[in-house]
Design a protein that fits this description.
By secondary structure, the chain is of the alpha+beta class. 50% of the residues lie in helices and 18% in strands.
């Protein structure tokens, strides 16, 4: 088999241009390809090309075309093939750009970030994407300030806005109930989540996450009760409008004398 391959390679078989008009074959990337079905033959040999033509297209309408019709059809098929090839190459190039951008984002994710450094991280990701997608707009993205100070200030502004909205809405409630849930975070700090559901004078029902209160010392019923009182005062709620409290079954929550609900 290897001797046969060496023999074929040593024959230096060359594609002849007249095979294109006669059999609708062209030479591309060192192979001969049929313009009609886009199949290739193993060896550049007239016998192989003629056999493909007779078995695959010998009875088709291509065989009955005149010389002029053949030339026009060959030109059209060649252009379509070149257009499809260029489109595939373009899509491959775009896919490579996306892959490179994803690699840059993954690399940045592996870096250890300091508090409030998310803005710098996001900016680096944006620049990496811009370099691949629209490099001419790099300067516009570089001028955007996302420093840790800027991110901290914007977080504070959003937090104040949320607090103001909650306080304004809470003042319109004629009755409300609270839901309390105490759990421990990843740093072994007890966190008390407080939710509120209330009704306005127009019978509109609102349900919001009110506050997350850290309990840094103990988590007794008195501690939870004090945290709830501070939250209620912070949001200008009137306890006389409180109709119910929902908790879990922990003793610190439902104890008959010292539970947060009882207090």
């Amino acid at each position: 088999m290897s001797d046969k391959k060496i023999k074929i390679d040593g024959e230096h078989r060359v594609f002849k241009p007249d095979w294109t008009e006669e059999y609708f074959f062209i030479e591309r990337f060192g192979q001969v390809q049929c313009l009609i079905c886009l199949k290739t033959v193993a060896v550049i040999k007239l016998f192989n090309i003629r056999r493909h033509w007779e078995t695959e297209h010998g009875t088709s309408h291509f065989a009955s075309m005149s010389v002029t019709q053949r030339k026009d059809t060959i030109l059209k098929l060649t252009k379509n093939l070149e257009k499809a090839t260029s489109l595939f190459c373009k899509q491959t190039t775009e896919a490579d750009k996306v892959t490179r951008a994803s690699y840059e984002v993954s690399r940045l994710l592996a870096c250890k970030m300091k508090p409030f450094s998310d803005g710098d991280f996001i900016k680096e990701c944006l620049i990496a994407v811009v370099d691949c997608v629209c490099p001419e707009k790099r300067s516009a993205f570089e001028s955007v300030s996302l420093s840790s100070r800027t991110v901290r200030r914007r977080i504070e502004e959003m937090s104040n806005n949320v607090q103001d909205s909650l306080k304004s809405r809470s003042s319109t409630l004629v009755t409300f109930s609270l839901a309390l849930d105490e759990s421990t975070d990843t740093k072994d700090t007890a966190q008390l989540a407080i939710f509120i559901r209330g009704v306005t004078s127009e019978l509109l029902v609102y349900e919001e996450f009110l506050q997350l209160v850290p309990l840094r010392s103990t988590t007794t019923g008195q501690d939870i009760f004090s945290a709830v009182l501070q939250c209620v005062e912070r949001h200008s709620l009137d306890l006389s409008h409180l109709v119910s409290v929902t908790t879990d079954g922990a003793p610190a929550m439902i104890g008959e004398k010292k539970g947060a609900a009882s207090l």
